[in-house]
């Protein structure tokens, strides 16, 4: 099952990536461009492994590091209650999620 944003989470693209608003808590989460690319890939139903392969093809990072980053970002978003389910055939995801609110 692909990752999905929770119904009460709003994704707003910015010049530098995106902002996620958790309407339940009022907290904002900032994603850099790479994290947004990863999130969109997972929301589109791609697995963590496929997402990591795309990431390592676009950036100077090993496949293992890309996979660890994808897994870490997904886990961060899942733990924060921003996404449900997970990337099919993969785990969580990585770079660039932080709270700002």
How far do the termini sit from each other?
Answer: 30 Å
Rg computed from alpha carbons, rounded to a whole number of angstroms: 12 Å
List low-pLDDT spans.
88-101
CATH level-3 fold name: Arc Repressor Mutant, subunit A
User: Main β-sheet: number of strands, strand sense, barrel status?
Assistant: 4 strands, antiparallel
Number of helices: 3
The domain count comes to 1
Structural category: alpha+beta
The coarse silhouette is globular
Organism: Kitasatospora xanthocidica
Pfam families: PqqD
Biased composition (Gly residues): 86-101
Region (Disordered): 79-101
Q: Briefly, what is this?
A:
By secondary structure, this protein is of the alpha+beta class.
Write structural notes for this entry.
The chain has 101 residues and is an alpha+beta fold. It has one domain (4-99): Arc Repressor Mutant, subunit A (Orthogonal Bundle), CATH 1.10.10. It is built from three helices and six strands; from the N terminus they run ββββαααββ. The strands form two sheets. A four-stranded antiparallel β-sheet has the order 2-3-4-6. Strands 1-5 form a two-stranded antiparallel ribbon. The model is unreliable at 88-101 (pLDDT under 50). Residues 79-101 are annotated as: Disordered. Residues 86-101 have a biased composition (Gly residues). It comes from Kitasatospora xanthocidica.
Features:
Arc Repressor Mutant, subunit A; two-stranded antiparallel ribbon; four-stranded antiparallel sheet; 101 residues; 39% helix; 6 strands; globular; 25% strand; disordered C terminus; alpha+beta
